[in-house]
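for the recovery benchmark. tokens below, seq after
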């Protein structure tokens, strides 16, 4: 459908949907990541090579979670950004650091697990904490370099609307689409293929070797399921619909209109909510990396059950308790 003016896209959905998701992610993510990081730091001297990546994964989540209150205010005010252009760019930069940093550290965990299971003799003694720290620094640098160009695009629309774009103003949308496609390829597609290849090979090896420890099999399968959920729910929809939405904006700017523009916009906003869920779902990795956390969870559940049982004492039982005292 080609028209001189494209059908108006309703932006009301964003202000209704995203603040609710941000509140949920902020509360759950802050509690889960704070607890997980505290558990890891208590065992700092016993940190293994993979736990270094888990620690950096948590730090990336905390960095992004601290920007969510400002985004909540932004969307509650009907997309009116009051914190200035510089802080708008910093907020979006932190999102990219969290997104591609999380993908990078998950990929590192997958590669280390692959080497430890498929090539145990070669990896033994070579995968040290020092190597993990050096690789973590490299991941932060690469992700920062990849995300830095995003800060040079215009994010705010001036004093008239006060928007803080997650991409850029429509004037530069063609160039931003090219940048987004490059970031998708290097920051998402390549790590995803590496992760898929590593765990695909690991599962094949574990299924062929009947002598393999059953506990190890369960741990690998559990981590594989967590990664599948993270990529399927958080990362894949976001990158697909982000680029489709940018493409629709390019076409709309060229006065080429299609009926699917509004649907793609709504799908993109939903995917934005889903991708920020990674900050609440990443703590699941703590359950895999730290064997003490499941035990702590069981203790907490047991204490909660006991507290509920105490509260469930009926009023008729109070005289009996007093007489027993």
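predicted aa per position
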């Amino acid at each position: 459908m080609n028209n001189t003016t494209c059908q108006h896209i309703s932006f009301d959905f964003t202000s209704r949907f995203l603040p609710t998701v941000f509140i949920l992610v902020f509360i759950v993510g802050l509690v889960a990541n704070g607890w997980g990081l505290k558990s890891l730091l208590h065992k700092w001297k016993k940190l293994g090579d993979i736990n270094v990546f888990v620690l950096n994964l948590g730090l990336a989540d905390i960095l992004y979670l601290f920007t969510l209150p400002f985004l909540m205010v932004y969307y509650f005010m009907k997309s009116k950004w009051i914190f200035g252009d510089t802080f708008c760019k910093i907020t979006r930069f932190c999102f990219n650091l969290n997104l591609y940093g999380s993908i990078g550290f998950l990929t590192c965990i997958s590669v280390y697990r692959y080497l430890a299971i498929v090539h145990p003799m070669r990896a033994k003694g070579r995968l040290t904490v020092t190597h993990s720290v050096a690789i973590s620094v490299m991941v932060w640098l690469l992700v920062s370099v990849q995300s830095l160009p995003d800060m040079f695009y215009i994010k705010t629309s001036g004093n008239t609307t006060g928007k803080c774009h997650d991409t850029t103003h429509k004037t530069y949308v063609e160039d931003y689409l090219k940048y987004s496609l490059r970031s998708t390829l290097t920051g998402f597609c390549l790590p995803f293929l590496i992760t898929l290849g590593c765990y695909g090979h690991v599962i094949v090896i574990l299924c062929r070797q009947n002598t393999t420890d059953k506990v190890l099999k369960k741990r690998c399968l559990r981590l594989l399921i967590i990664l599948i959920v993270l990529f399927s729910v958080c990362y894949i929809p976001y990158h697909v619909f982000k680029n489709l939405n940018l493409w629709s904006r390019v076409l709309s700017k060229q006065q080429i209109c299609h009926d699917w523009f509004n649907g793609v916009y709504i799908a993109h906003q939903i995917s934005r909510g889903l991708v920020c869920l990674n900050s609440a779902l990443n703590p699941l990795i703590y359950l895999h990396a730290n064997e003490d956390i499941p035990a702590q969870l069981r203790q907490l559940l047991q204490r909660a059950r006991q507290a509920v049982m105490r509260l469930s004492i009926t009023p008729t039982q109070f005289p009996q308790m007093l007489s027993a005292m």
